[in-house]
Amino acid sequence: MTKNPKVTIAPAAGKLAVLTPGMGAVATTLFAGVEAVKRGMAEPVGSYTQMGRIRLGKRSENRMKKVNDLVPLAGLNDIVFGGWDIFSENAYEAAKHAQVLEKDLVEALQEPLSKIKPMAAVFDKDYIKRIDGPNVKTGKNKMDLADQLRADIRTFMKDNGCDRAVMVWCASTEVYCPPTEVHQSLKAFEEGLKNNDPAISPSQIYTYAALKERVPYANGSPNVSVEMPALIELSKEMGTPICGSDFKTGQTLLKTVIAPGLRNRQLGVAGWYSTNILGNRDGEVLDDPGSFKSKEVSKTGVLGEICSADMYPELYSNIHHVVRINYYPPRGDNKEGWDNIDIFGWLGYPMQIKVNFLCRDSILAAPLVLDLALFMDLAGRAGMRGIQEWLSFYFKAPVAAPGLKVEHDLSVQLLKLENTLRFFTNEELINHLGLTHYGVDEGEA
Ligand SMILES: NC(=O)c1ccc[n+]([C@@H]2O[C@H](COP(=O)([O-])OP(=O)(O)OC[C@H]3O[C@@H](n4cnc5c(N)ncnc54)[C@H](O)[C@@H]3O)[C@@H](O)[C@H]2O)c1
Q: In Å, how far are 8, 89, 442 from 445, measured between CA atoms?
């Protein structure tokens, strides 16, 4: 690897603990998938860190390098998985329960999966209404619960001989609770932990514990966990990277591909109706209006940002954007999404686009969790702190620095990610200018 003199990246030596609050469908599909890949039973399809290639230098140089050959990422054999859940099932039992993967595959991986046993969770029924379980911590206040989680992290790392850890939130979506006074500064937040402030959710207690242990934290769900001044302040203070929110997997992934395409061609949008049927535990939790509200906010924000009514009033000032998720048990994890997009073109003539995506929720999400874990570990070793906007590629509602516009366009997000990797390795940043005809760049950008 070429080194950027401005960046020091510590080597990916030793073992990496990948810790997930929540050991449900997404987390167990990740654990099983990595174990299957390690054994040569499957390919890590969907994972940019494992399969992606990045162009380096001029087009004429023809240099395409595998991402994991370019930057020093932890190897799959060096990952140790751990997690917390309100249910005490180990990852083998939880994977069977989730019914995402075929029985034969789960049985073949019984040995490594059975070893992953959930630590007792920090849980509050007020934040997740539709489920309840026995494997839950008790403590004298929320600070005490955070201290217990910190002890869990340290014990896990010691017991498993890990040198570093990352945490990716894979637990259920909590009810929609925008930040309050207690979230505005670290001082107020720590007071709130001691005083059991009801506005502090379990996911925020996990985030606080991770950051205090200098463990990078990524938020895979739409609820507020790290997206607030207090914990952003803590991440900077501890020199630890953070990112979120809400894995961009199915319908929203396609939305952030299609919408920029329409806008780039200056085509108008009159309405976008998105509906889903979903039958897994996530769907059950999202059946509660409070949890759904968190999802609705992250899912609907995308379109308004890409198709900005302020910038293009003639095209986007009157978009009827509707997002629905319907809990429908027969489908399990195999979600079906329908999008009806009413667009208009030259002289306002209307047209329609229909998208019917028969997807598999956790199959789409698992590789994102792997990439986030590996890139957040890289960011930590590269001394990055605070919000990691270059990982917006993975999120429905990417967190940006205060006052900055969020970038939702998937291709722009990828460009930013790639250029960050080029920056790390002292490779030329690519701007795709390529004005060779004017002699601006003789080597072709
Ligand atoms: N699958 C996708 O495509 C996708 C996309 C975006 C976001 N997400 C989000 O990822 C998360 C996980 O999804 P899933 O399908 O695995 O859901 P799931 O219901 O199968 O798993 C979530 C697990 O979290 C546990 N849990 C709940 N509260 C907890 C707590 N406080 N501490 C520890 N464990 C707790 C539950 O018991 C459950 O086992 C959800 O928030 C979901 O919205 C998933």
A: 27, 53, 8
The pLDDT of residue 342 is: 98
Residue with tokens 């140089």: 61
Q: Sheet containing 386-387: which strands, arranged edge to edge?
A: 119-120, 79-85, 15-21, 162-169, 217-219, 241-244, 386-387
Residue 164 token pair: 């570093």
With beta carbons less than 8 A apart as the criterion, state whether 278 and 328 touch: yes
Residue in the structure block whose two tokens are 């502090």: 200
Q: Which helix (H) or strand (E) holds 111?
A: helix 110-114
- At residue 154, the pLDDT reads 98
Phi (first) and psi of residue 278, to 5 degrees: -150, 135
What are the chain's domains? 15-247+362-424 (3.40.50.720), 251-358 (3.30.360.10)
Q: Which residue has the higher pLDDT, 436 or 283?
A: 283
Report the separation in Å between the CA atom of 196 and the middle of ligand 1, taken as the mean of its atom positions.
Answer: 24
In percent, the amount of the chain with pLDDT more than 70 equals 96
Alpha helices in 216-359 (DSSP H): 229-237, 251-264, 281-286, 289-306, 313-316
* C-alpha distance from residue 264 to each of 232, 268, 420 (Å): 34, 10, 24
Cis preceding-peptide flag for 245 (omega within 30 of 0): yes
Distance 35 CA to ligand 1 centre (A): 20
Ligand 1 center from residue 37 Cα (angstroms): 23
Whole-angstrom Cα Rg for the chain:
22
Mean predicted confidence (pLDDT) in 169-174: 95
Whether this prediction's pTM lies above 0.85 is answered by yes
Q: Is 437 exposed, middle or buried (0-12, 13-18, 19+ CB in 10 A)?
A: exposed
- 125-164 burial, b for 16+ CB within 10 Å, e for fewer? eebbbbeeeebbbeeeebbebbbbbbebbeebbeeeebeb
The pLDDT, as a whole number, for residue 435 is 67
Band of residue 440 on the pLDDT scale cut at 50, 70, 90: low
User: What's the pLDDT score for residue 130?
Assistant: 85
Pocket of ligand 1 (CB under 6 A): 21-27, 84-87, 98, 121-123, 128, 131, 133, 170-173, 202, 220-221, 246-247, 249-250, 280-282, 285, 361-362, 364-365
Give the pLDDT band of residue 289 (cuts 50, 70, 90).
Answer: confident
Angle at 28 between CA 25 and CA 33, to 5 degrees: 120
- Tell me how far apart the alpha carbons of residues 255 and 304 are, in angstroms, rounded to a whole number: 11
Element (H, E) at 105: helix 103-108
